């Protein structure tokens, strides 16, 4: 989908108006951000916003996230949520286990296909 | 004022142009636009936009109206200092451009159809070269063409990689600039909130005076005191407006309007 963030009052107002006018394309609106359908019409709205507010609109393309495509991270997260006490930081939880440490996680870039 | 939209001209504080059938919006423009010679009068201020048109399609809110009355009388409220400070903060907050359109365009054009066509051409020439290798060897021209095309493809590929890397680098660099843009939005919101505070405070200050004006109006005219029109006329009476007010429709004529509002008036036909 297309993720649009407004960085000025005018851009935010326009984004809200778009949501009213194009409910079928503006999937969801979060205050000053919105998700647009990945269709030609969604792209048209994103292009129009960029044209009108070149410096006050940020557009990113999102993909669905599949946790099973990053199994070792998924497993670490499941284990941390289920096994660690509320006050254990992840770094302490991961040390001495097979789970990736925080530095490894930070340095790892997700594949484009995820 | 001198009213020049009718022939002959007219002059005075109260001008009735109902029978001339002039569009009230035309009169309003002539009053507000200093370069428009249709009405010669004292220059309209920004407040004329709120107070100077009665009976037109869009009327300002009650709070806007009352605040404009206070402003016309030079009323100051402490909230204006907070507003000035908020405006200063916004004015001195610098943001840098975050537009990466040129970089994106470069990436898109470096990856476009030309590259695919070039790749196909290289494959085709390669086929020709391979096919002729067994016999007399490839024709020198074909070989040269193949080498040149392959070199061009590699060059285009290098350009595409460089463009993608540049875009990625710029995106990273810009993420900090977005923080500054976000901060500016917060400052813009703060200014809008302080403006609202000022409007509310000014409106509160003007409210008693406008209420008295409305009472006076109700005593001397048949206008419904609860109507929008009564509020607008009472506001005119309570305000100090330099340029004439333009009144469309209603039951009162120009001289009555000028008397009860203590303002100079152009009375027009209905919209």
From TrEMBL, chain A:
Transmembrane segments: none annotated. Residues 91-114 are annotated as: Disordered. Residues 98-114 have a biased composition (Basic and acidic residues). It comes from the Archaea. Residues 1-64, 66-110 form the DUF7855 domain. InterPro entries: DUF7855_C (IPR058577), DUF7855_N (IPR057177). This is Uncharacterized protein.
TrEMBL record, chain B:
It holds the Pfam family DUF7856. InterPro entries: DUF7856. It comes from the Archaea. This is Uncharacterized protein. It comes from Halosegnis rubeus. The lineage of its organism: Archaea, Methanobacteriati, Methanobacteriota, Stenosarchaea group, Halobacteria.
């Amino acid at each position: 989908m297309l993720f649009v963030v407004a960085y000025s009052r005018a851009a935010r107002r326009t984004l809200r108006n778009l949501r009213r006018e194009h409910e079928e394309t503006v999937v969801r609106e979060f205050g000053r951000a919105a998700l647009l359908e990945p269709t030609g019409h969604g792209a048209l709205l994103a292009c129009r916003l960029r044209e009108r507010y070149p410096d006050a609109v940020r557009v990113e393309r999102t993909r669905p996230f599949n946790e099973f495509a990053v199994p070792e991270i998924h497993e670490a997260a499941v284990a941390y949520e289920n096994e660690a006490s509320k006050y254990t930081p992840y770094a302490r939880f991961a040390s001495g286990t097979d789970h990736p440490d925080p530095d490894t996680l930070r340095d790892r870039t997700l594949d484009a296909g995820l | 004022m001198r009213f020049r939209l009718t022939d002959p001209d007219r002059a005075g504080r109260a001008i009735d142009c109902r029978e001339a059938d002039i569009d009230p919006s035309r009169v309003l423009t002539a009053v507000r636009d200093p370069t428009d010679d249709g009405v010669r009068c004292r220059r309209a201020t920004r407040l004329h936009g709120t107070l100077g048109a009665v009976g037109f399609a869009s009327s300002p809110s009650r709070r806007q109206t009352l605040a404009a009355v206070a402003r016309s009388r030079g009323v100051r409220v402490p909230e204006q200092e907070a507003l000035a400070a908020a405006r200063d903060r916004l004015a001195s907050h610098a943001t840098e451009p975050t537009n990466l359109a040129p970089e994106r365009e470069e990436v898109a054009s470096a990856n476009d159809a030309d590259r695919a066509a070039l790749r196909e051409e290289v494959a085709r020439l390669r086929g020709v070269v391979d096919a002729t290798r067994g016999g007399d060897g490839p024709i020198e021209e074909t070989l040269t063409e193949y080498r040149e095309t392959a070199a061009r493809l590699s060059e285009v590929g290098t350009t595409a990689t460089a463009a993608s890397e540049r875009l990625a680098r710029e995106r990273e660099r810009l993420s900090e600039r977005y923080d500054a843009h976000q901060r500016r939005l917060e400052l813009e919101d703060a200014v809008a909130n302080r403006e609202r505070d000022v409007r509310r405070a000014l409106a509160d200050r003007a409210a008693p005076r406008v209420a008295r004006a409305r009472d006076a109006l109700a005593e001397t005219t048949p206008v419904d005191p609860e109507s929008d029109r009564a509020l607008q006329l009472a506001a005119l009476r309570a305000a100090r407006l330099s340029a004439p007010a333009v009144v469309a429709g209603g039951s009162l004529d120009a001289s009555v309007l000028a008397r009860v509002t203590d303002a100079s008036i152009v009375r027009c036909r209905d919209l």
